[in-house]
Amino acid sequence: MTSPCFAPAGEPASKADSTALHSAPAADGPDVRRALDYSSRIYDALRVRHASRGEGNGVRTVEDADGTWLHHDWSTDPLTAEEAADAIGRAQAYLENANWTVRHVATDVSVPALFALHEEDQTVAQLVPSTEGPLRVAVTTPAAHVTVTDI
Predict the structure, then answer these.
(1) Which residues, in sequence order, are CB contacts of 46 under 8 Å at separation 6+?
(2) From CA 90, how far away is CA 101, in angstroms rounded?
(3) Which end of the chain is more exposed for a tag (fewer CB within 10 A), N or C?
(4) What pLDDT, in 10s, does the model give residues 33-92?
(5) Which among 79, 83, 85, 121 has a CA at the least distance from the CA of 100?
(6) Are the beta carbons of 88 and 116 closer than 8 angstroms?
(7) Start-end of H helices in 1-151
(8) How far, in Å, are 13, 98, 110, 143 from residue 18 at the CA level?
(9) Three-state DSSP state, 96
């Protein structure tokens, strides 16, 4: 299974493959690869179909008072509450096995959101169910890779 992260711009995600990573916009460095790699692993763990690439999906740079971040987001196809809960449970199992710290946050729907922190590289993953059915997935990682051991 290959994540929609690797679909070349303008092509269906079903044609996705890892070589498209090299056509990532603006920054094609290790930070972009890290964000896409985490996103792809979460996609594999969810085991649900992704929605067509929409506006706002993809990798972008975000700057705030704390620094510069690479943010990758995408959505699943609409899911029932049960499907969303099952998918989030599978993602939680993957994240915990990969040494992420996982927290649940109440939402406006019956399924809580999942937020996870990978402390080694300060990457954050968010899986948020929506009232319309899709599960919103986002991975945010520092643009300059710094590990805890570097500090």
Answers:
(1) 76, 87, 88, 90, 91, 127, 135, 137
(2) 15
(3) C
(4) 999 999 999 999 999 998 876 655 678 888 888 889 999 999 999 999 999 999 999 999
(5) 121
(6) no
(7) 30-46, 81-97
(8) 12, 21, 35, 21
(9) helix
Q: Which domain holds residue 63?
A: 4-150
pTM score of the predicted model = 0.76
Paired with 125 in beta bridges are 116, 139
Count of Cβ atoms closer than 10 Å to residue 122 Cβ: 17
CB 48 within 8 A of CB 40: no
Spatial contact of 109 and 131, defined as CB atoms under 8 Å apart? yes
CATH number of the domain that residue 47 is part of: 3.30.2030
Domain count, the chain: 1
